[in-house]
Amino acid sequence: MQGNPRAVEEVVHNTTERGAIHMAESITVMTTGGTIATPRDYRQRRLSAKDLAEALNSSDQRITDAHVAWKDFASRPSNAITCDDVLSLLDRMEKEIAEGAKAVVITHGTDFMEETAYLLSLFWEYDQPVILTGAMRSAGSISADGPRNLEAALRTAESPRAQGRGPLLVFHDKIYATGEISKVHSWDTDAFAAELGPLGTINQWNELHFQRETIKRKTLPRPTSLTEPVALITASMDTSEAMVDALVSGGYRGLVIQGGGRGSLPPRMMEAAKYAADNGVHIVIASRCAFGGTSPGSLSPGIIRAGNLNGVKARLLLLVAISLHGYDRDKIRETFDAH
After folding, report:
1. Could you tell me the residue range of the domain that residue 48 belongs to?
2. Tens-digit pLDDT profile for residues 63-114
3. Do residues 318 and 256 lie in contact, with contact meaning Cβ atoms separated by under 8 Å?
């Protein structure tokens, strides 16, 4: 996917499974790489979309009655996925929908899945389901979780109850809104969580149960590129102003600082943040806590609070807001207030 991802060779493998209740006319599965496509011997080549299709369809168990098109978008770990790659992925997803797909399933590495998931939640404006999934255990390993996660993703994609909910993450038999999830464990197969919990679950009989509705947020216009210099740093005990000063001197136009608790910073670091904000740098304060967010109100006229967004999501939203609004601080604050 380096350069133009459209140049990546597409491998299309169409299957129609027998006997399932027909709920969707067609589903496109697009692969980006990650552990779900990594053999047990990582020195071997990563699995293609065709490989994933053959592995999933090798069992006698019925997966879906939908017509499934398996396509390669990329083959790389998630730490090598860029923001602009996600914009290109969105273009490809829109093309699939325009050509008749009723849902799109994306396989993705888990380490940086949270970022791709959040960007999808900001930009996907269609009712057709988009399902993100992956794996914590490599393909071919004992108790590999990829096949089950992919099966559950396909089941969700073909369900009419997934329509209009925005992009979803299906993982470990749980269904999450992509704008809400965080990776909370580095190796457990139940690796993701959301403060409000999952939207629903999938049981052993592949029945979907939704417990709550998706919190709807207005989608944003899609920038042509997301390459503005925006940094994310974390405050800790006795952190000085040096890191803030160094990043500002290095040309960063935006800075997200994860503070303690509801967003507190050590005094010298806070003074540096206020000075940077007064001199035209966009400063956003988030909480380094997993859940709860920052306290309401203004720290300083030039500093924005991230609300319930953690630092990773706040950085992406600031990156998008700067790309759309430049240095219009009121517009950027409005963007954060709305998300």
Report:
1. 5-210
2. 666 688 999 999 999 999 999 999 999 999 999 999 999 999 999 999 999 9
3. yes
